[in-house]
Amino acid sequence: MTAGAADRTVTSASDPLAEDHPTDQSHAHQARRLVVAVDGPSGSGKSSVCRAAARRLRAAYLDTGAMYRAATWYCLDRGVDLDDEGAVALAVEDLPLSLSTDPDHQTVTVGQADVTEAIREARISERVSAIATNREARALLVAAQRRLVDEAGFVVAEGRDITTVVAPDAQVRVLLTASAEVRLARRGLQMGGTQSTEALQRQVLARDAKDSTAVNFTEAADGVAVLDSSDLTFEETVDALVSRVESVR
């Protein structure tokens, strides 16, 4: 699999640089390292909240969900059977992915194709669990995510297993959640009101149920703070996350 300061190219997931503990990190880089790890279910506001927080903190922003979505797009584009776990894993290993870690400039590219908008389509949301629950494909993506986190130094990374698997040693670990009703409403607004109630339930609740078979992102692990945004405005949620980061800086 082939993300950069602004646009990073995700190297082959089997690349030794993607292992858990890169050996070429300088002491100065490690001293500057501050990782903000945020997990949560679909529609909890992870992407928008974390991107805004990264912007205010002048940190890099890593949307790991975009990587799973890009892998889904790639498999569908190549006609890979998403039920064939081996074929999916091979496709993910070859995935020519580049994504931005600049919160002000979010782009996702697969090969020569800009898929920034395409990966947010309903057809991707309804199929992405096939990648997320494929353990071999997930391991490849997690390895690449760990490398990106280490390279960024100061980063807000969000997904479903950042606090427990990708960056369990992060200085700030948060589970961002909201009630099912609120999450469905938010996803409906995000999709511009084009989705039926049934479609939204597939994209949010059904997807969460499938993904939870691979990783627990509905309950906070030990040491992970819970931030429930059900009754908070967007700005209040961003403020709460930024405050947590500032308290450890």
Automatic annotation (TrEMBL):
<keyword id="KW-0067">ATP-binding</keyword>
<dbReference type="GO" id="GO:0005737">
    <property type="term" value="C:cytoplasm"/>
</dbReference>
<dbReference type="GO" id="GO:0006220">
    <property type="term" value="P:pyrimidine nucleotide metabolic process"/>
</dbReference>
<feature type="region of interest" description="Disordered">
    <location>
        <begin position="1"/>
        <end position="29"/>
    </location>
</feature>
<dbReference type="Pfam" id="PF02224">
    <property type="entry name" value="Cytidylate_kin"/>
</dbReference>
<dbReference type="InterPro" id="IPR011994">
    <property type="entry name" value="Cytidylate_kinase_dom"/>
</dbReference>
<dbReference type="GO" id="GO:0005524">
    <property type="term" value="F:ATP binding"/>
</dbReference>
<feature type="binding site">
    <location>
        <begin position="40"/>
        <end position="48"/>
    </location>
    <ligand>
        <name>ATP</name>
    </ligand>
</feature>
<keyword id="KW-0547">Nucleotide-binding</keyword>
<feature type="domain" description="Cytidylate kinase">
    <location>
        <begin position="36"/>
        <end position="246"/>
    </location>
</feature>
<dbReference type="InterPro" id="IPR003136">
    <property type="entry name" value="Cytidylate_kin"/>
</dbReference>
<keyword id="KW-0963">Cytoplasm</keyword>
<feature type="compositionally biased region" description="Basic and acidic residues">
    <location>
        <begin position="18"/>
        <end position="27"/>
    </location>
</feature>
<comment type="similarity">
    <text>Belongs to the cytidylate kinase family. Type 1 subfamily.</text>
</comment>
<keyword id="KW-0808">Transferase</keyword>
<protein>
    <recommendedName>
        <fullName>Cytidylate kinase</fullName>
        <ecNumber>2.7.4.25</ecNumber>
    </recommendedName>
</protein>
<dbReference type="GO" id="GO:0036431">
    <property type="term" value="F:dCMP kinase activity"/>
</dbReference>
<keyword id="KW-0418">Kinase</keyword>
<dbReference type="InterPro" id="IPR027417">
    <property type="entry name" value="P-loop_NTPase"/>
</dbReference>
